[in-house]
Design brief:
Helix content is 33%, strand content 10%. The protein is α+β, with helices and mostly antiparallel strands. The protein is globular.
Length: 81
């Protein structure tokens, strides 16, 4: 069986992988899928997808649909200063 998830004092599940953990996977400008990020972090694809979506909403990642259901995310170039 898998590991038991930790719960807070209030009984809710605690977050073990943060969006910033997912962002750290993007060390270059290579696009990645949620499955690739999930494998790198040792989490399920749906959790990775949720973290990537949060990063997109925050403006840290861009995303593009590249097929029927395929989506890739990448780190945009930093703005010119």
């Amino acid at each position: 069986m898998g590991e038991e998830r930790r719960r807070s004092d209030k009984g809710t599940y605690t977050e073990e992988v943060t969006p910033d953990d997912a962002l750290a996977v993007f060390i270059d400008h290579e696009p990645r899928t949620a499955s690739e990020v999930a494998e790198e972090l040792g989490i399920v694809r749906r959790t990775a997808y949720n973290k990537l979506t949060a990063l997109e909403e925050r403006g840290d990642l861009k995303r593009k649909k590249v097929g029927g259901r395929a989506v890739v995310w990448w780190r945009p170039d930093p703005p010119d200063e």
